[in-house]
Amino acid sequence: MEGNTLEETSKTFQIGTTTLKKWEKEYKAGGDLSKKPLKRNPKKVCSKKLIEYVRAHPDAYQSEIAEIFGCSQSAVSQAMKKSKITRKKRRFGTESKIL
Predict the structure, then answer these.
(1) Do the beta carbons of residue 41 and residue 71 sit within 8 Å?
(2) For residues 50 and 69, is the Cβ–Cβ distance under 8 A?
(3) What residues does each domain of the chain span?
(4) How far apart are CA 66 and CA 16, in angstroms?
């Protein structure tokens, strides 16, 4: 980056100036710019337990399931989608028996 401004360098490499500043700060702090492992929280919803619970309680709302599993409704929704569990209620059509 010597000799060029942050703006010129960001245009050359098509990256933001914020990214360049972050890299420069990391380089000055320790010199290591290698890719760091991602920090992810463990999954809160076990898919096997979720499937068992849904089979036992087919009419439970996602918000109720979330309370049981100690997570958010969106986490339950994503886990259900990943486990290919659909919650659509099928409507039974009634035919008129008028003769």
Answers:
(1) no
(2) yes
(3) 1-36, 47-82
(4) 39
User: What are the pLDDT digits (tens) for 8-32?
Assistant: 989 999 999 999 898 888 888 887 8
Q: Is 71 exposed, middle or buried (0-12, 13-18, 19+ CB in 10 A)?
A: middle
Query: Which residue shows structure tokens 């969106």?
Result: 74
Q: Which tokens in the block code for residue 98?
A: 């008028």
Q: In which residue are the tokens 């463990």 written?
A: 42
State the Cα–Cα distance between residues 81 and 75, nearest whole angstrom.
10
CA distance 44 to 22: 32
Q: Worst-scoring range by mean pLDDT, 37-41, 50-54, 73-77?
A: 37-41
Per-residue tokens: 72: 């958010």
> What six digits make up the tokens of 61?
């709302």
Type of residue found at 45: V
Cβ(32)–Cβ(26) below 8 Å:
yes
